[in-house]
């Protein structure tokens, strides 16, 4: 449906504040990537990112102009193509850094798992706008929809992206009307597994608290708390088997998160050096191209997963606050758009994009500051990565498309 391209009145609703914040974030990104990679063989990454910015912004405007309505009827086909692409990675994908995540097509190497985030958002928006989220079949359909791509992603392996899928699903379920208590009940088996891994007594205390919570709520048939308690019991006991399914580097990342100093020259090296870099930046920072940790390349993959440490060291506290303010503008405007639109499908689509961006920002900055385990999640619109950049600007384009059409029904 290309109505938007022929109707100039729609562009009056274009969210220029959000668009300018995106442009500013891209400027931040190019400055930081240039600082990390100049005078190195990795400077080609800066060139590739720079060459991608204009086409990416063009894609954002094109998506905004074309609209989102066609996604409603195409959601099923988008999901099928998404699953096929993820399965193809396992068969014909290229490996790098211990993971098989890339496919080469016409000389361009891309990650299907990045585009899969948008495909999942579109599919869940269609499912949740059609299904009753309070009915068991609605929740089961959502969980089944998320499980297939999440399992394929986990096998690459890419635990970080699999977690993003879970976060998107939870955010959209909440927006669709599922209560926080119901969401906690859904998450409780996974929580039981984690707590059991921390220690038996912690798990016993958790199970006691869960029992008190279920008795206090008193809104369930007696079969529900018994089933939920039994499921928590089984997942807790089975946690050691799940631990055995993780790759060695994934186990090491979790152990290092709990105690980074246990392996300061190995798995804990990234986090320790990143914290040193951020702390040394002080209030004003050491200036672009002048950060000690950055320019001496103490932090591997600093222009991808740990780009926030460049901001912290070279631009300081002020630079970090400006960066967070820009993200707050984009995410805040996204929430406003999701709240204002009268179309349930569009509203769910918008909140899915917002949840994806928010989760990425929260986890990536948490990684760089040692507050979250290292799971390889890039910082949106900042980290180097052409597929990630294109995915994020298309997502912003969907937000703009919804904003431009939110008053269409009133007209």
Write the layout of secondary structure elements.
Blueprint: H1 3-6, H2 16-37, H3 43-66, H4 69-92, E1 94-96, E2 99-105, E3 108-110, H5 112-130, H6 136-154, H7 159-175, H8 180-198, H9 200-217, H10 223-237, H11 239-245, H12 248-258, H13 269-280, H14 292-295, H15 307-340, H16 344-368, H17 386-405
Helix pairs in contact: 2-3, 2-15, 3-17, 4-5, 4-6, 5-6, 5-7, 5-16, 5-17, 6-7, 7-16, 8-9, 8-10, 9-10, 13-15, 15-16, 15-17, 16-17
Notes on the protein architecture:
The protein is mostly helical. It has one domain (3-405). It contains 17 helices and 3 strands. The protein has helices at residues 3-6, 16-37, 43-66, 69-92, 112-130, 136-154, 159-175, 180-198, 200-217, 223-237, 239-245, 248-258, 269-280, 292-295, 307-340, 344-368, 386-405; strands spanning 94-96, 99-105, 108-110. A 3-stranded antiparallel sheet has the order 1-2-3. Helix 15 (307-340) runs antiparallel to helix 16. The longest helix has 34 residues, at 307-340. The chain is globular, with a radius of gyration of 22 Å.
